[in-house]
């Protein structure tokens, strides 16, 4: 029994000896001993994962043999976003210090789509040993192509409760620094400031752009990125029929009131979750709309409302002196109390769903996209609200989304038309958004899946002119485009453009809670 002990020890310390041939990426790169959680562990690094198991004593006692059974723990390298050498330093000492080991920082999935970071400490006092492991770990992390190394950041200090600056410097910036991401920060001073900077800055110096703010701020930055792409491509920015894609991805850090785009991307309003999606390089292609009049491009955006949703925003903007929450509540109640429909004509091109397959199928699909005159449909009447959305538009008040029938990148828009009805029935429809019930299951609500929409308001004249409730003093109609107020007097043409921009985040259709594969030590 005594002679067998060394062989038993080797089997425990080196379990890889009897393992089957490893797949590509699983071949061991390094193997060594570190102290993890006050226990000596046999640690193995491959390109895909880091795994370790406690080293057992040569002759465990009967009482401790069960407790000391080697349980291998694993972390996937794709979940690691930073590695640092850990040193003991005296107060005020910024460099050098006694080496203690290596700290690995991992992105951890929590409940309700939330992400957080955790640290795993690998303790070893050997400088050469730790430096070798540190170099190999850094090489693996540098191999993840989508992870940004340099970011242009816009912070809107006026968003919501003026929290954006605090959120960025207290929650976001430390994670960017930990991940060795260089940042160039612009704190916006006025509406349109981010747009002006994006038109002039050297975008090729950055791997991505980040906006810390609400829906309006994000919309401005997204519009600026896409407008810059058209300018760089030499396109006419007054009329953009086939826009080119944004040159770099856009990251969204929620710091507003509703944060629709952040909810839709991450499934939650959580600054750390949003930051970690950016750090990890999780990229999602997203459809974008162009909003145009017959003479010019108004905006790139993701969603719009005409009627009730736009008039509520217009009234809120007139009461900017009020606190954000009170202003929006007041505008909602006041617009609901003065509820009136607006007469307009809607023309839309339904989405032509054809199976991908033969060359003939693809030719039919191309013809369908062109949209001949007989494919366009028209409806005219009195509408309380018209919503046009290329993304589901999730938020805390609408957990299923304002447009649950569409997706982030399926090349279509959801057209939701609310016909004239009583105030009581309209309120019932609005309340349904907060529940799991179908908010469109009303006789006065119609939904369509479309590629293009034209909205043409019908002005009344003579004695009925006072019923033009949407018009402002300049004769323009308000539009709510991604939480930004725009005013136009003429027809607005909305087109969807598939996967026109990359956003840092994940498709909320694919969000699932995952099991933790290691303990944070």
From TrEMBL:
<dbReference type="Pfam" id="PF00781">
    <property type="entry name" value="DAGK_cat"/>
</dbReference>
<dbReference type="GO" id="GO:0006665">
    <property type="term" value="P:sphingolipid metabolic process"/>
</dbReference>
<dbReference type="InterPro" id="IPR050187">
    <property type="entry name" value="Lipid_Phosphate_FormReg"/>
</dbReference>
<dbReference type="InterPro" id="IPR057465">
    <property type="entry name" value="CERK_PH"/>
</dbReference>
<dbReference type="InterPro" id="IPR001206">
    <property type="entry name" value="Diacylglycerol_kinase_cat_dom"/>
</dbReference>
<dbReference type="Pfam" id="PF19280">
    <property type="entry name" value="CERK_C"/>
</dbReference>
<dbReference type="InterPro" id="IPR017438">
    <property type="entry name" value="ATP-NAD_kinase_N"/>
</dbReference>
<protein>
    <submittedName>
        <fullName>CERKL protein</fullName>
    </submittedName>
</protein>
<dbReference type="GO" id="GO:0001727">
    <property type="term" value="F:lipid kinase activity"/>
</dbReference>
<feature type="domain" description="DAGKc">
    <location>
        <begin position="146"/>
        <end position="295"/>
    </location>
</feature>
<dbReference type="InterPro" id="IPR016064">
    <property type="entry name" value="NAD/diacylglycerol_kinase_sf"/>
</dbReference>
<dbReference type="GO" id="GO:0016020">
    <property type="term" value="C:membrane"/>
</dbReference>
<dbReference type="Pfam" id="PF25382">
    <property type="entry name" value="PH_CERK"/>
</dbReference>
<dbReference type="InterPro" id="IPR045363">
    <property type="entry name" value="CERK_C"/>
</dbReference>
């Amino acid at each position: 029994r005594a002679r067998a002990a060394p062989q038993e020890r080797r089997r425990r310390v080196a379990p890889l000896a009897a393992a089957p041939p490893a797949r590509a990426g699983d071949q061991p790169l390094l193997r060594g001993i570190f102290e993890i959680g006050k226990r000596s562990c046999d640690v193995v690094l491959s390109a895909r994962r880091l795994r370790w198991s406690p080293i057992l004593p040569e002759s465990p006692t009967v009482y401790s043999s069960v407790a000391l059974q080697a349980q291998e723990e694993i972390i996937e390298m794709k979940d690691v976003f930073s590695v640092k050498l850990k040193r003991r330093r005296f107060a005020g000492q910024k460099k050098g210090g006694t080496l203690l080991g290596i700290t690995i920082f991992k992105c951890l999935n929590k409940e309700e789509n939330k992400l957080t970071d955790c640290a795993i400490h690998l303790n070893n006092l050997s400088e050469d040993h730790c430096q070798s492991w540190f170099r190999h770990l850094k090489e693996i992390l540098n191999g993840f192509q989508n992870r940004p190394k340099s970011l242009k950041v816009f912070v809107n200090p006026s968003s919501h409760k003026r929290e954006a600056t605090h959120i960025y410097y207290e929650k976001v910036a430390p994670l960017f620094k930990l991940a060795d991401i260089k940042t160039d920060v612009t704190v916006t001073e006025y509406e349109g400031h981010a747009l002006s900077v994006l038109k002039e800055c050297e975008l090729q110096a950055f791997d991505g752009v980040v906006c810390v703010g609400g829906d309006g701020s994000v919309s401005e930055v997204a519009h600026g990125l896409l407008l810059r792409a058209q300018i760089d491509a030499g396109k006419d920015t007054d009329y953009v029929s086939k826009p080119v894609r944004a040159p770099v991805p856009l990251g969204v850090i929620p710091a507003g009131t509703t944060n629709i785009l952040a909810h839709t991307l991450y499934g939650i309003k959580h600054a750390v979750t949003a930051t970690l999606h950016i750090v990890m390089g999780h990229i999602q292609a997203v459809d974008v709309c162009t909003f145009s009049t017959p003479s010019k491009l108004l905006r790139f955006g993701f969603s719009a409302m005409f009627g009730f949703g736009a008039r509520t925003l217009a009234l809120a903007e007139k009461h900017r002196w009020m606190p954000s929450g009170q202003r929006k509540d007041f505008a909602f109640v006041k617009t609901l109390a003065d509820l009136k429909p607006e007469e307009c004509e809607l023309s839309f091109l339904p989405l032509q769903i054809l199976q991908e397959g033969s060359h003939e199928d693809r030719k039919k699909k191309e013809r369908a996209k062109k949209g001949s005159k007989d494919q366009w449909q028209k409806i005219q009447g009195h509408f309380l609200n018209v919503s046009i959305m290329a993304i589901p538009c999730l938020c805390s008040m609408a957990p299923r989304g304002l447009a649950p029938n569409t997706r982030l990148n399926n090349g279509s828009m959801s057209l939701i038309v609310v016909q004239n009805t009583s105030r009581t029935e309209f309120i019932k429809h609005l309340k349904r958004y907060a529940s799991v019930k179908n908010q469109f299951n009303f006789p006065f609500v119609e939904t369509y899946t479309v590629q293009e929409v034209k909205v043409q308001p019908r002005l009344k004249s003579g004695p009925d002119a006072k019923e033009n409730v949407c018009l402002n003093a300049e004769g323009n109609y308000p539009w709510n485009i991604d939480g930004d107020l725009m005013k136009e007097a003429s027809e607005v043409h909305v087109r969807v453009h598939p996967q026109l921009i990359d956003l840092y985040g994940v498709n909320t259709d694919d969000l699932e809670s995952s099991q933790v594969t290691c303990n944070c030590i």
